[in-house]
């Protein structure tokens, strides 16, 4: 099973209880789980076209967005032409089956709940040729939602920097603050852009202070680790609920994939490699040395102990391996947090 329908999403907590009671008496050995997840990661890396895109995540976390009353910002760093942004806006604007959850009315479901609610979206795209297309694409949504697109780059410092792009690349996609061997080969394919940090832009934002950042998506062409550094106060204070970023095999800034995951885990964020086969756990002891060789990959992170992260993992689709992992690890984290809160 790949995805649950919106109606089934509402029953995830009940499914969790049923699934937990159905857990095999004989636990799956850890070495077998490691073998399965290693295979899933290598399979996805070998067949790169099967790597799931960030659009998939919007579907997984939609229920959580409904639960918190559609509050919280959606931030898109590296919005490009706006294709992902448009998908986010469409998915999060869809009618939901949550209206009468727990309060059935004559067996009917209200399909129009919150259709008039406004979403708050921030998109960052520094490339002067891509930005007009992004703005134009999202213009139809601005009549109903709060759409803000900014022609600036995001990193771990504020000021100005050179944005590098491929010489002769008519698409102008893939521009980056990080100069690589295939960018700016002629020494003229660059120009100066304004740079901000996420902390600078959002840490004192009134909406963020009240409702947080629901989803932070980063696609900064090898600059993702530096974007995370620039938003560390937000992350450390758990003001970001879900995070999506991209990892590369080689980067010019020297921050490794493992280092990024470990640093996030130090502030209780749990990360997963997004593949079609499974959400592969990466944090803490679940990291495996062979993951260092992964190519361009999408990573999903959420707060440890968050019920919505558990639900999203289960909703992604399960087999015996992923189910056992979720029930013995993610659900265990949830119980730990509840116990800790009860004692405090």
Automatic annotation (TrEMBL):
Keywords for the protein's UniProt record, in alphabetical order: Signal
One matching Pfam family: Methyltransf_21
The organism's place on the tree of life at top rank: Eukaryota
Family matches, as InterPro entries: FkbM_mtfrase, SAM-dependent_MTase, SAM-dependent_MTases_sf
Methyltransferase FkbM domain span: 76-246
Residues in the signal sequence: 1-27
Protein name: Methyltransferase FkbM domain-containing protein
Native source organism of the sequence: Polarella glacialis (Dinoflagellate)
